[in-house]
Automatic annotation (TrEMBL):
UniProt-recorded name of the protein: VanZ-like domain-containing protein
Classification lineage: Bacteria, Bacillati, Bacillota, Clostridia, Eubacteriales
UniProtKB keywords: Membrane, Transmembrane, Transmembrane helix
UniProt cross-references to InterPro entries, sorted A to Z: Teicoplanin_resist-assoc, Uncharacterised_YbeF, VanZ-like
Transmembrane spans: 6-25, 46-70, 97-121, 133-153, 159-176, 204-227, 247-266, 271-287, 293-315
Domain of life according to the entry: Bacteria
One protein family per Pfam: DUF2651
Residue stretches making up the VanZ-like domain: 56-173
Length: 336
């Protein structure tokens, strides 16, 4: 019970510190859809964000802050106990008397209902049940395996209950669609028949790589950001015991600089670039929450603007070369 209460307290900081990463990911995904000839809707994007946050919610409740303290020596010392307590017999010890048993059963089911709902929503109608059950069971299995390494144990009952929760999410979507069919039709996408050029393929790959970089940076800096957000919480470790933010200081400016340049090539719209940079400044504020965090925010702001300026110069020089070539071609055709 204490573990669940502790992890529920972590949900709020996880939600807030991941907002910039989720927004950047979806903005890049929309641009990728554009290159692939896929038309998305506002409703679908809201649903996609909800699916991501359902994953974050599950990860926070099941793993909590334990993912921050992976230590090889600790794992070697305690993994034997975790393996010894693995339960692979279905329904063994599932029905327990008292509040703990009730919370365990219903908590494992309800936790996966939103995830199952949104997985089904983004699946083809004829494959919904298959995708939902596989996704629910697969995600639960991954979480159970991770728990072995954080001094908890793997239980087949949790996988059964989680999969049941995902299936109930699928059933909830079916019931909702029958009543509000017009509303749920707005979540569909339209794919136009478009032959991708080499340039479009390169852009799609570039956006995908950028998305991966964003999530890698998030993974590297997540511990510091959550700790900073939860500065006054007695449930979290003292910030004085945390190592200096060396990785953050090295990786975040590089991310800001690269994204600022790439955004110029992908979007070429000042408003979108400013929104992305604003999101990155928020990351800096969360990550470097100390007496000098305003100075670091100013540095990151300068770096992002520098990256934008360099991107502008590259685009302008590229356009000048293209115009020169066009003029030379037209000039040569006129004199032929």
């Amino acid at each position: 019970m204490l573990f669940i209460k502790h992890n529920l307290l972590l949900v709020v900081p996880f939600i807030f510190v991941l907002i910039p990463f989720v927004l950047i990911h979806r903005i890049l995904e929309i641009k990728k859809y554009h290159y692939l000839g896929i038309k998305t809707t506002r409703y679908r994007e809201v649903g996609a964000v909800a699916l991501i946050y359902s994953l974050i919610f599950i990860g926070t409740l099941t793993l909590g802050s334990s993912i921050f303290f992976f230590d090889l020596q600790f794992i070697v010392q305690h993994i034997h106990d975790s393996i010894k307590n693995i339960n692979i017999i279905p329904f063994k010890g599932m029905i327990e008397f008292g509040i703990h048993g009730v919370v365990n059963i219903f908590g494992n089911i309800f936790m996966f209902i939103p995830f199952g709902f949104f997985v089904a929503l983004f699946s083809k109608k004829d494959k919904r049940i298959k995708h939902t059950v596989i996704a629910g069971a697969g995600l639960s299995l991954v979480i159970e395996i991770i728990q072995i390494f954080v001094m908890r144990y793997m239980d087949i009952n949790d996988i059964i209950l989680n999969t049941l929760g995902a299936f109930l999410g699928f059933e909830l979507l079916n019931l909702s669609e029958k009543r509000f069919s017009n509303f749920f039709n707005k979540f569909s996408t339209n794919k136009t028949v478009k032959k991708l050029t080499l340039k479009d393929k390169i852009k799609v790959y570039a956006v995908t790589i950028l998305q991966i970089v964003v999530w890698i940076i998030m993974s590297v800096n997540l511990k510091q950001m959550v700790m900073s957000f939860y500065l006054k919480s007695t449930d979290m470790p003292n910030l004085n015991n945390i190592d200096p933010f060396k990785l953050t200081l090295l990786t975040l400016p590089l991310l800001v600089f690269i994204i600022s340049i790439v955004m110029q090539f992908i979007f070429r719209k000042r408003l979108i670039i400013l929104l992305i940079n604003f999101a990155l400044w928020m990351i800096a504020a969360f990550t470097l929450f100390n007496s000098n965090f305003l100075i670091y925010c100013f540095i990151y702001t300068f770096i992002s603007l520098l990256g934008t300026l360099i991107g502008d110069l590259i685009i302008k020089s590229k356009n000048k070369l293209i115009n020169k070539r066009r003029k030379s071609i037209t000039h040569s055709t006129l004199f032929k």
